[in-house]
Amino acid sequence: MMTSRFHNILFLTLMTFGAVQLMACGDLEEDGYIDETVDGETGGELGEDIEDKYAFVLIEDLTDPVAGDSPGADLDAVSVTIDGVEHFATTVEDFNLGYTNNDYLNVNEVLGAPDSGCTKQNFVSLGGAQASGYIIVGFANEETDAFFTSGDSVTVYELGPTTCPSQANWDDDPYSVGVSISTDRGSFTEIGYGGMGNNTLIVP
Ligand SMILES: [Ca+2]
Ligand SMILES: [Ca+2]
Fold this sequence. Notes:
Elements: H1 2-32, E1 56-61, E2 74-82, E3 85-88, E4 91-96, E5 124-125, E6 134-138, E7 153-158, E8 175-180, E9 189-194, E10 200-202
Antiparallel strand pairs: 1-6, 1-8, 2-3, 2-5, 2-7, 4-6, 7-10, 8-9
The site of one calcium ion (CA) has 8 residues, from strand 2.
């Protein structure tokens, strides 16, 4: 009896695992190619699969409530790693900050490589979720358009213990990360969340 029941449970477990595997594969294939977001970049031959290309990253502040003089997510830098090469943001395309009690309002502090040295300088605070704090950054420069795609990654240098282990008293403030080929805020596809011990997200 025990043996038979064990086999039944094992069988069901294997079947469920197999179904989840199949669903996961289906999701990956579906998400890998979305032709309509490659605005103006299509033009491939009929039937050719155009892989998603992205150029911009949107970071939306999910911190609620906020406190102190650097409210919400504190961004020192943002990068995309393309084929193993890290590219730092070169442009701020759009933003909204929470301005109340916020002493860190210079959005250009998010550009380039991290330069805070994990001290309280050279970053912008988005101001929290209630203030709808967000920023959209781009990565193109004179040498490269820095398009990125599935399998590349986005890293947000949000000043907290994840980015700065030496600052145990700082907060890992939560935020969402979206990617798009357009700067239109409505066009972004959310790829995940940071601020919970992780600050690098793989583009699905
Ligand atoms: Ca900085
Ligand atoms: Ca923080």
